[in-house]
């Protein structure tokens, strides 16, 4: 059995991202002299949004991803382009990034920020690794999806999604 280098490097980065998220949470217990209350509230809201995005992405992949019998729900055999995947290509990873931002806003410690920045870099590298894998796996269909849906930019993805969903007005009928 050969070991896929992508799986090893991606798995190590993903594990490191998880450790960094845990460390960022642990730094909440460090003393912060003058925490900014509204920033902690905003961090809580961002954290909830991140968790909801992760949950929605997971449910969508489980229902529509058609993973092989011996694989877990993240190993899809079908390109999923609905739900949160209609807005961003990597909602799970975006959810993780939002959790890091939330941790920094709530914790307000330099160590929390350092763990969060390092974690976001890990998630970005995992995302780029995943992009190459998905392009190899799904080919032209994924390339077309990449042109329509941004990787992590939720605002751009939402704007594009709304434009696709809005009814097209025909100017021919105005005469």
Q: How would you describe this protein?
A:
- 67% of the residues lie in helices and 0% in strands.
- It has 175 residues and is mainly alpha-helical.
- The chain has one domain (34-162): Four Helix Bundle (Hemerythrin (Met), subunit A) (Up-down Bundle).
- The longest helix is centred in the C-terminal third of the chain and has 29 residues, at 110-138.
- 27% of the residues are buried.
- Residues 1-5 have low confidence and may be disordered.
| Separate helix tally | 6
Helix percent band: 55-70%
SSE run: HHHHHH
Main sheet attributes: strand count, strand direction, barrel closure? none
Note the overall shape. Answer: globular
Report how far apart the termini are.
68 Å
Give the strand tally: 0
Low-confidence stretches: 1-5
Classified by CATH, the class is Mainly Alpha
Return the CATH topology: Four Helix Bundle (Hemerythrin (Met), subunit A)
Radius of gyration: 19 Å
Count of discrete structural domains: 1
Q: Approximately what portion of the residues adopt beta-strand conformation?
A: under 5%
